[in-house]
Design brief:
The protein is α/β, with parallel strands linked by helices and about 425 residues long. The protein has helices spanning about 15-25, 75-90, 110-120, 130-140, 145-150, 150-175, 180-195, 200-210, 245-250, 285-290, 310-320, 360-365, 390-405, and strands at about 5-10, 30, 40-45, 50, 65-70, 75, 100, 105, 200, 215-220, 260-265, 270, 305, 310, 325-330, 340-345, 350, 365-375, 405-410, 420. The strands form five sheets. A ten-stranded mixed β-sheet has the order 9-7-5-2-10-1-11-15-19-20, sandwiched between helices. Strands 14, 16, 17 and 18 form a four-stranded mixed β-sheet that branches. Helix 3 (about 110-120) packs across helix 4. The two termini are about 10 Å apart. The structure holds inosinic acid (IMP). Inosinic acid (IMP) binds near residues 13, 39, 127 and 271.
Length: about 425
């Protein structure tokens, strides 16, 4: 029995979807524990492309349970679109495969409108999906949960109380249009009839699976540097993206987590605003964007691209307790003569090797690079890590030294079988007492 958490070690979009899909073959269940439809986890199966925003990326395997935990915020419309799309393509034949926590909070239309209206002032570069405002309501204890949606009387009462306040905030403060109660209510009644069958006490279900000795993958969304506490605040998302939140967001204790796997790209990308010390503003950045297809899976926005930043990934290793790293999209760097890796920063003339928590300080750091030779070879067809050209292996070894954790797998293409070093991560978990 083992429970493994998979998290992004940069600013999101590291390729978690592909790795979760790949490792689901060894698991019995996959649990999403935070975020919402701001995430866009892409999985390729042959020529078929899937983008999951809320449903865990293990859904393509028949019989593997996919659980949306209490820490997720759910836009029911998006979720239904995802469910319908999957069913049309012949997946999710058995509805008992999917479970939604009754404690997960709903994203309502006013959350999205507040999100986009506030962007005019705060300029975080959010996905506009209402994620921040939905989490705010959760913490303010005025949020509406999946379980509330199921009960007409409670839903009506909570929607009414919320809408009165939201409409006055929208109209008077944000100078936006308000919403009609009946319109939202009727739409959500439809959602109830479609989603009701999936709503469960998932914390108990997960615990029962664990007691039965099942293997569970906890699928993080976004990345370490977008964590609301430990990321580049305020340019972060509204949830804790770190591995510790797998416990809170699914309802299990920390003693039940056996290991944490991080995912990082062989270079760095970021969408939205905020500091990015290794960002490339030149044709090389454009080349990486085109070759790596670095456009947001949720919003289509072009991603900002830059060199691998070992300081950032080392920070992610520390705040997550990452024990093994997966490097993705290594093939995107195939054509380069030389590669740069950021090994530290210069801040006010002083050399530092950590991410400063003060955003102004982080915004003013200058990256210190080490240069490595490129491998100038197509690595897509490689079958094992030892097949990689010597310079590619050297690059990985240097990254390993700098981030202080072992690289356990390397992805060299978008398909499942284009991953090197795949092993059953549940085979030798840390023993639990
Ligand atoms: P929000 O999560 O929509 O509030 O956006 C806050 C910040 O997180 C913005 O910079 C977004 O671009 C970023 N963000 C949110 N979700 C993702 C993701 O799945 N991948 C990459 N960036 C994300």
């Amino acid at each position: 029995m083992a429970n493994i958490v998979i998290v992004g070690a940069q600013w999101g979009d590291e390729g978690k979807g592909k790795i979760v899909d790949l490792l689901t073959q060894f698991a019995d269940a996959v649990v999403r524990f935070q975020g919402g439809d701001n995430a866009g986890h892409t999985v390729y199966l042959g020529k078929e492309k899937f983008v999951f925003h809320i449903i865990p990326s293990g859904i393509l395997y028949e019989g593997k349970k996919c659980i949306i935990g209490n820490g997720v915020v759910i836009d029911p419309g998006t979720l239904i679109t995802e469910i319908t799309g999957l069913k049309k393509r012949g997946y999710l034949k058995d509805d008992s495969q999917l479970m939604i926590s009754e404690e997960a909070h709903l994203i309502l239309p006013y959350h999205r409108r507040i999100d986009t209206a506030r962007e005019r002032v705060f300029k975080i570069g959010t996905t506009g999906r209402g994620i921040g405002p939905a989490y705010e309501d959760k913490v303010a204890r005025s949020g509406i949960r999946m379980g509330d949606l199921i009960d007409e009387k409670i839903f009506r009462k909570k929607l009414d109380a919320n809408l009165t306040q939201k409409n006055s905030y929208l109209v008077q403060v944000l100078k936006e249009e308000g919403f009609e109660f009946e319109k939202i209510h009727d739409e959500f009644v439809q959602f109830r009839s479609q989603l009701g069958k999936y709503v469960k006490d998932t914390a108990r279900e997960i615990h029962e699976e664990i007691l039965k000795g099942k293997h569970i993958l906890f699928e993080g969304a976004q990345g370490a540097l977008l964590d609301v506490d430990h990321g580049t605040y305020p340019y972060v998302t509204a949830s804790n993206t770190v591995a510790a939140n797998a416990c809170v967001g699914s309802g299990i204790g920390p003693t039940l987590i056996d290991s944490v796997v991080g995912i990082a790209k062989a270079y760095t990308t970021r969408v939205g605003e905020g500091p990015f010390p290794t960002e490339l503003h030149d044709t090389l950045g454009d080349m990486i964007r085109q070759k790596g297809q670095e456009f947001g899976a949720t919003t289509g926005r072009p991603r900002r691209c830059g060199w691998f930043d070992a300081v950032v990934v080392k920070h992610a290793v520390r705040i997550n307790g990452i024990q093994g790293m997966v490097i993705t999209k290594m093939d995107v760097l195939n054509d380069l003569d030389k590669l740069k890796v950021c090994v530290g920063y210069r801040l006010n003339g002083r050399r530092i090797d950590y991410v400063p928590s003060n955003i102004e300080a982080f915004q003013s750091v200058e990256a210190v690079y080490e240069e490595l030779e490129g491998w100038k070879t197509e690595i897509k067809g490689a079958k094992s890590l030892s097949d990689l050209p010597a310079n590619a292996q050297r690059y990985l070894r240097r990254v390993e030294e700098l981030i202080g954790t072992k690289i356990v797998m390397v992805s060299v293409g978008s398909e499942r079988n284009e991953t090197l070093g795949v092993q059953n991560p549940f085979a030798s978990p840390r023993s639990r007492t």
